[in-house]
Amino acid sequence: MSATADHAESLAARLGFQSEQVVQEIGYDDDVDQEFRDAVEELVGELVDEEYDDVADAVLLWFREDDGDLTDALVDATELVEDAALILLLTPKTGRDGYVEASDISEAAETAGLSQTRSISVGKEWAATKLVTPKTAAKTKR
Q1: 93: DSSP letter
Q2: What is the per-residue DSSP string for 38-85?
Q3: Fewest C-beta atoms under 10 Å: which of 34, 41, 112, 128?
C-alpha cells in the first residue's frame, strides 16, 4: 500500500469509520475521490448502496450543488441509521464544479437535526463535513 493510500485509510479511521461497520454510500458517481472511497471500503468492508434497506452504522454521502435539496438528502440519509451514527457529507472543494457553500451545509444539517462536528479535506477535489445524528433525534424520528 502506498503512503497516500495509508494516509487515506488513516483519515477514514480518524473520521470515525470502524472495521466491519455497515456503511451506506449515497451519491456515488465517477467524480468521487476514489482513493478515499477505497480507503473507507478497505477499513469497513464492502460499502452498501442507496438501495440498502436495513439499518446502517454510518453514511458516506457524496453531494454536489446540483444534486437537489441538501436538507432532503440529509434527512433521507438518516432514515435507516443507528443512533448517534456518523454521516460523512462529501462536497466539492471551493472553486470546483458542484461546490456547496459552508453556510448551506450548516443550515441543512441543523434543519435535518444533525450536529456538525468538523470539516476536513479528503482529497484534491473533495472536502468532508462530519455530521452526527443525536441520539434523541434518531429515536423521535422512528
Answers
A1: P
A2: HHHHHHHSSPB-TT--S-EEEEEEE--GGGS-HHHHHHHHTTTEEEEE
A3: 34
**Does residue 3 register a pLDDT over 60?**
no
Assess whether pLDDT exceeds 50 at residue 141: no
Provide the grid cell at 92: 466539492
Q: Which of 65, 63, 70 is nearest to 26 (CA)?
A: 63
Residue 8's closest CA among 139, 132, 136, 128?
128
Report percent pLDDT > 70 for the chain. Answer: 88
- What 11-15 contacts at long range (C-beta under 8 Å, 24+ apart), as own/partner pairs, is 11/36, 11/39, 11/120, 11/122, 12/36, 12/39, 12/40, 12/42, 12/43, 12/44, 13/43, 15/86, 15/88, 15/120, 15/128, 15/130
| pTM exceeds 0.85 for this model | yes
Which of 72, 32, 80 has its CA nearest to residue 56?
80
Name the residue with cell 467524480. Answer: 31
Handedness of CA 7, 96, 104, 80 (dihedral sign): negative
In the prediction, which pLDDT does 140 show?
A: 40
